[in-house]
Amino acid sequence: MNTADPLCDRRPSVCNAAAYRFLSLDDLKQLRDELKQLCRRLALKGTILLAPEGLNLFVAGTSEAVHELLARLPLRPGDIKFSTSETQPYSRMLVRLKKEIIAFGIPVPRTAPRVSPRELKQWLDEGRPLTLLDTRNDYEVRMGTFRGALDLGLRHFRDFPEASARLQHLRETPVVTFCTGGIRCEKAAPWLETQGFSQVWQLDGGILRYFEEVGGEHYNGECFVFDRRVGVDPALLETDSVVCPVCLAPLTQQEQADSRYLRGQSCPYCFRDEISEAQAALNRAGRPLPGSRPAQNRVPLNIPARCHGLTLRQALLELFPKIEDWSNLRDHQGQTPDWERLVQAGERYLRVTESQVEPDVCAEIQVLYLDEALLLINKPAPLPMHPCGRFERNTLRHLLEVAFAPQVPRPAHRLDANTTGLVVCARNHHFARLLQSQFARGTVQKHYLALVHGHPPEDEFEVNLPVSGPVAEAGARDTGQGLPAVTCFRLLERRGDNSLLEVRPLTGRTNQIRLHLWSLGHPVLGDPSYLPQLGRADRQTLTPGHPGMHLHSWKIRLRHPLTGAAFEYECPLPEWCS
Fold first, then answer.
1. C-alpha to C-alpha distance for 395 and 387, rounded to whole angstroms
2. Helix (H) or strand (E) run with residue 256 in it
């Protein structure tokens, strides 16, 4: 295979190669080990992804080293795109095994026809009626795209199937999909075909090949690339764009001129608002309550892989055995679906409730702490954290989205609707991943305060009792069923017939603290579901003005996702605790 390219023969530039190919691969572990050794010997840096469906790579080094690596791989000259840079754009060499070389989550045939860059330019020169569909993520699109292109506002390529459901009006019109190098279109374009789009093409080689063959006509801005160069112009030369080290947003020169851009500290997308401004925004978001106005409730329902091939009726019975009435279910066109239709993994439906007014909640959210990565709040009660049941807009998540738009703070853990206190949120998706991994590993120390019925016989004790889902059975202790759950308790004070406890959950099961105390005969005061004498009630979320449930998220200790240093915070105490 002759992969020589004049771009990589200029000195003293670093040669950059990007390539992918869909083909069946086996013996992936052996291939990974061979490529690791080869790249180490050739002093190459970058990333190579290997999957049963093919390979994807971005590597940089000397021209000779790059070409020696490419010659080892089952690539064709047309699969490879070259560019140059003055410095090495990657910090290390990774060779990884993946389930997919581009995450999509749904198998699709790769059958969509291609249009070459020269042919697409001719179509655009002629003013041919067509829709240019950008399949990249929102932060990539911000740096540049084709004039008049349709942006789906994707946060991740896995969202494409759901987002494309909004394009049904284009099913009979010509659509050309494009992305950075063409790999995402290998799945996006065929997916549109499976959804009934009759005229779909994918731009062969993506934006980078378009730049290489025809330049920048009909394109505005630059193209985001996934290395230290950040962006390249239509001449495939590195631009002056940078990445904000705080939130990882790519920033053009214009965005760097923004007064909110402080090098190494903040940018227009993660600017450190004063706590008072954040508090004012939350106050506006909750007054009046968003759910106090009648509005259509649209709750998405996703078909998981385990239901692939079932009829819709069977899938619903498998997923929600206790729900009998599905008259409000709609497909992506807003129509009543065919209940005997065979469903596919990843299909999306909506449960639509017309003109619903949601129950009142308490929206007096207090901002406690704010920095580049973290938002800490004192959650009131009752206030559900996430959409569920009767609550869609009267939730913490919705109020945060309204107050902080266009940012989307993400809670890193959950509290019951009736539990008050400290909630840790990440300022963007990057820090959310870092925080949530700490919670998943159990390295975060959480302390609660609880006022309970009765007096535990010991001052310090531990409960190791499985929790079987959101609603545990009273016999869980005896049957041993459910997920492992461990909670430590320390008696702080006896108050008449009640006791104030410090609580430290070592695991994070739903309703864990409440269930463990209830199983001991010391339920939390005001708990609407778990009652004294092992009583149970169907009531879930309390109403504002009710005495409330006496469980409070008090203190937390974790690793700061930006600095890695130990971070502790203590929430103010409620009146019943002081």
1. 6
2. helix 253-256
Torsions phi, psi of 467, nearest 5? -115, 120
Domain 366-570 class? alpha beta
Quote the CA–CA distance of 91 and 241 in Å, as a whole number: 18
Check if the beta carbon of residue 238 is closer than 8 Å to that of residue 244.
no
φ/ψ bin of 182: left (φ > 0), alpha (ψ from -120 to 50), beta (otherwise): left
- Sorted by where each begins, the domain ranges of the chain are 6-97, 114-239, 294-356, 366-570
Of 360, 490, 501, 369, which Cα lies nearest the Cα of 422?
A: 369
CA–CA separation, 145 and 343 (whole Å) = 35
- Token pair belonging to 26: 């086996």
Class of domain 6-97: alpha beta
Q: Which of the 8 DSSP states describes residue 8?
A: G
Provide CATH code, domain 114-239. Answer: 3.40.250.10
The b/e string for 379-405 (b: 16+ C-beta within 10 A; e otherwise) is: bbbbbbbebeebbbbbbbbbbbbebbe
Distance CA 120, CA 231 (A): 23
DSSP code at position 215: T
H or E element at residue 276? helix 275-285
DSSP at 123: H
Cα 161 to the center of its chain, rounded Å:
15
Q: Please tell me which residue in 15, 39, 179, 244 is annotated as part of the active site.
A: 179
Q: 40-44: long-range contacts at Cβ-Cβ below 8 A with a sequence spacing of 24 or more?
A: 40/93, 42/68, 42/69, 44/69, 44/93
In CATH terms, 294-356 corresponds, of 3.90.1150.10, 3.10.290.10, 3.30.70.3460, 2.40.50.140, to 3.10.290.10
Beta strands in 249-392 (DSSP E): 250-251, 295-302, 329-330, 348-356, 366-370, 374-379
Confidence bin at 407 (pLDDT 50/70/90): confident
Question: Angle CA(452)–CA(453)–CA(458) in degrees, nearest 5?
Answer: 75
Q: Which residue's structure tokens are 């008696």? A: 491
Q: Looking at this protein, which amino acid is placed at residue 146?
A: F
Closest to 520 (Cα-Cα) out of 456, 449, 429: 456
Tell me: the pLDDT tens digits for 240-275? 888 887 777 888 888 888 877 877 777 887 765 567
307 given a catalytic annotation = no
Q: What are the beta bridge partners of residue 410?
A: 426
Q: Which of 418, 551, 568, 569 is nearest to 489 (CA)?
A: 551
Which residues have CB under 8 Å from 283's CB, separation 6+? none
* Token pair listed for 348: 């999306």
Please report, rounded to a whole number, the percentage of residues in the chain having pLDDT higher than 70.
94
Q: Is the pLDDT of residue 478 over 60?
A: no
* Model pLDDT for residues 353-397, shown as the tens digit of each residue: 776 788 999 999 999 998 888 999 999 999 999 887 778 889 999
Partners of 349 in the β-ladder:
301
Q: How far is CA 177 from the centre of its chain?
A: 23
